[in-house]
Amino acid sequence: MSEIRTVRGMRDLMGKEMLVRNYLIEQAVQVFRSFGYEPLDSPVMELWETLSAKGGDEVEAETFKFEDKGGREVGLRFDLTVPLARIVATNLHLPKPFKRYAIGKAWRYDRPQAGRYREFMQADVDVIGASSPAADAEVVLVALEFSRRVLKTNYIVRINNRKVLKGLTEIAGVPDDLAHECFRSIDKLDKIGKKGVLEELSSRGISKESSEKLLDAIELRGNGLDVLDKFAELLKESEIGTEGVEELKFMAEIFEETEVSSLVEFDMALARGLDYYTGAVFEGRYLGKPALGSIFGGGRYDHLIERFGGQPTPATGISLGIGRLVDVLIAMGETDGLESELQVFIAPLKRPMVRYAARLANEFAKADVTVEFDLMERSLKKLLALSDSKGARFTVIVGPRDLEKGQVSIRNMETKDTVLINLEDAVEYVSSKL
Amino acid sequence: MSEIRTVRGMRDLMGKEMLVRNYLIEQAVQVFRSFGYEPLDSPVMELWETLSAKGGDEVEAETFKFEDKGGREVGLRFDLTVPLARIVATNLHLPKPFKRYAIGKAWRYDRPQAGRYREFMQADVDVIGASSPAADAEVVLVALEFSRRVLKTNYIVRINNRKVLKGLTEIAGVPDDLAHECFRSIDKLDKIGKKGVLEELSSRGISKESSEKLLDAIELRGNGLDVLDKFAELLKESEIGTEGVEELKFMAEIFEETEVSSLVEFDMALARGLDYYTGAVFEGRYLGKPALGSIFGGGRYDHLIERFGGQPTPATGISLGIGRLVDVLIAMGETDGLESELQVFIAPLKRPMVRYAARLANEFAKADVTVEFDLMERSLKKLLALSDSKGARFTVIVGPRDLEKGQVSIRNMETKDTVLINLEDAVEYVSSKL
Questions:
Q1: If I label A277, which of A10, A332, B100, B172 is the partner at 20 to 30 A Cα–Cα?
Q2: B266 near B290, Cβ under 8 Å?
Q3: Residue B405: which CATH number?
């Protein structure tokens, strides 16, 4: 019994936090379904061959990897994108576009810190098989509609495009093989400031001249098509950069048709960490406290499915960070009304009354009325206090004398009125009053 | 790219199977909440110290166990009871009874076979802190109400009590240290028959005389209080046996008050595999095809929480096998109406129309209307055929000429009637027709 606790960096969820998470998942499912996405689930573990196909140096260091009893290397998934890519690569008959949602846990062997756990829950939507920037816009609209429902206000999405960043490095004269390193430094602008980025670029071997060109550009950000005209002007000499700006413009035109346009910020400094993005990248931020970093993020990954042996397949998707949003909603205090209200508490007064209490509980539950009956053989006084503290609307008192006449007492906990009702009419009586 | 597939014994869930699983979980949550259970979630992995505290020789062989990068031994949970026992043992402030539900996956390194996977989903309810058999009866009522909702018919629950079995071994003269071995053999009566059980008992070192006494008894089974009178008569010389029968009678009295009484079979041969059961044990069976074994099971485990360093705490619970029920419902063909109906399909006729299609999709989704818009720039003919094959109720056609007048065409896919509606009135128009 030396150690009875959770695994480091992981947490139990109960009480209010659990109710908030269930609420967030319900809302996400509603939005995902409205936008025509279908559910998919995959095992929590994948063969190591699959997980490592995603590439990136950090995959192995961050993965819970182990050998199963058959000596085969497996690992817990670190996101919901790898399982999707595997499924798409191996199921050639899927209709395109294939729009799926997935809600589940993923695991990363990170350093645990505030708002970051080694086990976390994500809710993802992805569109497989559509190269149009309309698909990128759609997954952003999904995330924004979800955010509107659960946060109401205080959130934005920042958007950029990897082709824009590639164009930028071309213009700035950064060698091709340093481009991804360069993106990683640029992405840290908000965290480490211009000076920090400059130092990182220099340490990565990028020339002072290139670095300064980059730094001039990466502060470009703003709403709507105007800022994209500036992107276009800056990148007019780069073919790939211009292509990226065109894709962003297509997205911007869609957003301009909706009321979310003011929530969308095009941001030349946004890169997102993953190596496999090929086009649009997006990141949602909650602007209130606690400042927990991104609440959703994603992007286009047109070459990932090939890495799993699949056909070349355009793909884009977005992932909602459910765990962080639990913390945000708790901090906002916007959690009233999430607890399922106890509607009826049943108080059997003696052991032989328990069977009638259980019978009534069963009937109430069948009628979708939330009910509990006393399992502890407590006194009436205690039971009424308990029913009150649980917020029950009605207490049904099953006593021997009433029961001899086939009746039970039903107490309205608000008005304190008590009526005698025939046992078989109790559910109908209470249901009519709820 | 040598191996791109799922881990052995695990499966992806999509399409109809996934919709069925979501339906089962929704129904379970509804029933659990109606009976006053609150949700709880825990990490998928536990420290090995925790998992091994449950005891039993097979735990290590059946667990996905590994060392994390810090050299600490951890394992994937093999049920939802161990995490609950850990939480109860370490959270001394929980109000009693603590009634929690949990829905999640668990993992066992079994031999994969039909209907059995190494990753499986369970939905559990447990009552912590109540020693009354009313709590045992309640969790059975929960499982039966869930079964009624999803299966309608063709299911029963078999119930026994470990004290009854203990009494039986006393009467039969089986040595104490062989009692659990003996339970395991008895439990196999349905699988291997009387002759098989006799052979097993003999091989476990139980005398012929004892074995024959056991075999006479374990065929006792039936509905209601009458069969329990036979249990009582048989065990009248055993104090613990008599106590067990009294507990079963309390449960039977509760069931007799409800309409589920005919679904409850008291069965002297039911033992259930786990060593830690201390009182009532229950097992639900689906009687139709495919014959998948138990669909739910559980029992009372009054000493488990102590094994995790907690206070002595009575506890009972039941676990629904969601994965098996998915297979049952698919086989029953009772899966119509689970697919979320696509209500509106939006067909933009040219690329510049896509932004209006996206705008409309966003507005429909905000109004909880299930909608998709074309992301593939297909022709009208193809889009109408697609909309039809997806079962959409309406197709909204966004064409350049209509749009010049601020209008879109809305086609009722059933009547084939098409009307021109102002863009801003489209959602209201369609919503009013759904």
A1: A10
A2: no
A3: 3.40.50.800
Q: Count CB pairs under 8 A between chains A and B.
A: 279
Residues B266 and B376 in one domain: no
* Contact by Cβ (8 Å): B120, B72: no
Report how far residue B92's alpha carbon sits from residue B78's, in angstroms, rounded to the nearest whole number. 24
Structure tokens at A300: 């286009």
Instruction: Specify the pLDDT at position B3.
Output: 65
Spell out the SS3 assignment of B147-158: HHHHHCCCEEEE
Q: Mean pLDDT, to the nearest integer, of A309-325?
A: 94
Phi, psi dihedrals of residue A77, rounded to the nearest 5°: -60, 145
Between CA B73 and CA B239 the distance in angstroms is 43
Q: Compute the distance between CA of residue B91 and CA of residue B22 in angstroms, rounded to an integer.
A: 31
Q: What is the CA radius of gyration of chain A?
A: 28
Is A375 in contact with B109 (Cβ distance < 8 A)? no
Q: Give the number of domains in chain A.
A: 2
Gap from B353 CA to chain A (nearest CA, Å): 10
CB neighbours of A395 closer than 8 A, spacing ≥ 6? A344, A345, A346, A347, A383, A384, A387, A410, A411, A413
- How many angstroms separate the Cα of B258 from the Cα of each of A395, B224, B252, B255? 20, 12, 10, 5
Token output for B306:
């102590």
**pLDDT (tens digit per residue) in A397-411:** 999 999 999 999 999
Q: Residue A50: its chain B contacts at CB < 8 A? A: 3-4
Instruction: Report the first-to-last Cα separation within chain B, whole angstroms.
Output: 48
pLDDT band at A1 (very low <50, low <70, confident <90, very high): very low
Is B114 among the domain residues?
Answer: yes
> Same domain for B349 and B327?
no
Determine the residue among B4, B98, B136 to mutate to test chain A binding: the one whose Cβ has the most chain A Cβ atoms within 10 Å.
B4
Q: B237: burial class by Cβ within 10 Å (0-12, 13-18, 19+)?
A: exposed
Average pLDDT of chain B, as a whole number: 93
Domain with residue A177: its CATH number is 3.30.930.10
Question: Which residue range(s) make up the domain with B368?
Answer: 344-433
Q: How far apart are CA A290 and CA A325, in angstroms?
A: 10
Do A324 and A356 lie in one domain? The reply is: no
B132: chain A residues, CB-CB within 8 Å:
354, 375-377
Same domain, yes or no: A67 and A183? yes
Task: Find out whether B104 and B78 touch, Cβ atoms under 8 Å.
Answer: no
Last residue of a domain, one of B311, B332, B353: B332
ipTM of model over 0.85: yes
Do B327 and B353 share a domain, yes or no? Answer: no
Measured at the CA of A116, the angle between CA A112 and CA A117, to 5 degrees, comes to 65
For the stretch A97-130, pLDDT in tens is 999 999 999 999 988 777 789 999 999 999 999 9
Residue corresponding to tokens 């249901």? A431
Residue whose C-alpha is closest to residue B42's, from B323, B313, B308: B308
The sign of the torsion formed by the CA atoms of A114, A120, A123, A125 equals positive
